[in-house]
Amino acid sequence: MTVPTATLRLSYPLYALDFDPTSRDAKRLVVAGGGGSSTKSGIGNKLTVLALDDEAKEIQISAEIDLSREEDAVSSLAVESRPVKGKDGKGEIVRIYAGVNSSLESIKKGKNEHLRVFDATLSHKTASSSDEKDSEKKQFQGKITESSRTTLFSARDPDAYQRLLRISPPLAAAATGTTGPSSRDSQIALFDLPSPTQINPNLRGTLELAKEATDMDMLRVSDSQHRLVYVDERDMYLVAISEDGHVSSPRCVFSMPIDTAAGQTVRPTFRCVRFLTETFVLAVANLPRGGGAILQGFRLPTNLSAAAGENEGEAKARLAISAKLPKHVARATNLAVRGLTPSKGKVGDAQFVVAVSGQDSSVLVYTLEHTTLVQADVCLVSQLRRVVDWREVHQGPISGLAFSYIAPPSEKEEEETPVLRLASIGSMGNTVVVHTLPLRPHPSSKPKQKRYILGLRSSPVIAPTQMIVVTAIVFALLALFLQGAMEVKGLTRPVLGARQVVPESWLGREVWREIEQHQKGKRYYKGDSLWDRYQAAVEYQRDHGQNAVVLKAGGKESDEEGVDIDVVTSGTAEGESTGKQWDELAPAQREAWKERLKRAGQWSEEMGEAVLKGVLFGEIAGVVRGLVR
């Protein structure tokens, strides 16, 4: 299925974006960026409101504001979900919060009004079109004005700026970043959003951080409480914020371990984090030395006091799901998450859509299932599935990702199925790309409680641990199959008993017995001389506890001139002699043996009779034909 895509190139680099939550058709978004402060590039700083056409194939500029060239470019922004009406009651105001550093001169004086509030007044009129259908199109026209600017951070680091911004009405949070070599006085500022009739936010307080926050997210878990999660490179922290103003101390709920099993000596680093529900968060971490990226879901502790150490069993977040991104993603850069079933209370059964961008300008989309077991009061996340893997979405790095918002179902019985839009921006190509993803009702959802899922095919993602288990099972089954096949063909010693369960026509000659006999012979081989063969036979019989070894004159009994001498084992048949020592032989027999050994080249007078002692000699009438070569 082809996904509708719209692209627009603007005149300035883009660093921040967000969809307008008040737009029920998810066609409006805000982007911002620029050339920065006091630049000589001629690129200005701007903030732009964009709108998609009805077919989601074109992006139009609804409103735009030129920001001061003496100040920094917009580094972060968020759009408020509470609708604001214009003074005349006819227009529609979109309230935008942005992070913009003041001019260098102001910062040197210790004044940096980094939090800006913009009000975009949008109205639309109907104008005739000259297309083939001569239909009417809505053309948005609006104006953006700056309403207020505020200082939230108490740090005086001249390299600091407002890097992160998250809002969850009526509360919001902003975090510092730095352009210097290391972070100093890193902070997260918590503030109340102004009411629709006000313009100035109210600072609640700041959190002093030991390290700069890599990413953060905020979620309203009840009418009286919010939760804030943030990560630095190694650790994940959780903060509880009450409506009465109480803010808990940051609790470290997870520390990134070193994967020694994979041969790593350096810890992976957190890159992004997002709330799924009050129970689960999703994070992206990059492996050391550009070794790839992993997507991880964590179950959060239910009690922050436990995270403080009162109950070690509930103190930490636990890994609930994990998957490695494809090999072409050496590092992940952005993460976006959206639940497809809006809920004012606890989230029940729902599907989440996840987007991750890589350093190669790729965008990957996944789905994740959230399931609630009502009887056990337990929530689970499972079935992480990959939907699409778009390559080279932008000409250069992707600087931001954002999903549109899913509006709660209205009371209308017949309501169009919503769509989900995914927007991405490129800082080098100055481009905005919007993909429109189709949704469909879940087959089991009720008309009054509609549940949506993504209307695209997906494939399961196998986690690293699952891959190891599956690979081990495959190799074990393959080994069993090969063992059974070799047993049937007689190539190996029976272990599985496969020869007992197959037709006789399948059976092969038991070659393994011959192989073992050959190997045993090689083990005791010492040379080709008579005495070497005799000594090898003696050692073999000693190890296996069988019979004595005897030298026997080979050939016919009447063959006095014979030279054949055999090394045999004796005593294997009733009445057979076990051989005699050299001194036990009759004189005539000793002389006969000397002559035969001389003719065979195995003895001479110079060797003496000492070499013949300790050897058993057999009589022609009492030998065993068990030849040992």
From TrEMBL:
Lineage top rank: taxon: Eukaryota
Gene Ontology CC: one annotated term: endoplasmic reticulum membrane
Biased composition (Basic and acidic residues): 130-139
Protein's membrane topology: Single-pass type II membrane protein
Keywords, ordered alphabetically: Endoplasmic reticulum, ER-Golgi transport, Membrane, Protein transport, Repeat, Transmembrane, Transmembrane helix, Transport, WD repeat
Molecular function via GO: guanyl-nucleotide exchange factor activity
Alphabetical GO biological process terms: endoplasmic reticulum to Golgi vesicle-mediated transport; protein transport; regulation of COPII vesicle coating
Main location: endoplasmic reticulum
Disordered: annotated segments: 124-146
Sequence intervals crossing the membrane: 461-482
InterPro entries, sorted: Sec12-like, WD40/YVTN_repeat-like_dom_sf
Entry's localization field: Endoplasmic reticulum membrane; Golgi apparatus membrane
UniProt cross-references to PANTHER family, sorted A to Z: PROLACTIN REGULATORY ELEMENT BINDING PROTEIN, PROLACTIN REGULATORY ELEMENT-BINDING PROTEIN
Function comment: Guanine nucleotide-exchange factor (GEF) required for the formation or budding of transport vesicles from the ER.
Family from the record: Belongs to the WD repeat SEC12 family.
Name of the featured protein: Guanine nucleotide-exchange factor SEC12
